[in-house]
Amino acid sequence: MYKEKIVIKVGTNVMTNKDNRIVRPVLRELIRQIAELHERDIMTILVSSGSVIAGKEVLGMSKIKDKTQKRQVYSAIGQPRMMRLYYNIFHDFGMKCAQVLPTKRDFSPGVHRQNMINCCEGLLSEGVIPIANEDDAVSLTMSMFSDNDELASLIAQLLDVDKLIILTDIDGLYTGDPEEDSSDLIKNVNPNEDLNKYIKAKYMTKNGIY
Question: Which residue among 75, 79, 132, 193 is least crowded, i.e. fewest CB within 10 A of its CB?
Answer without folding.
Answer: 193
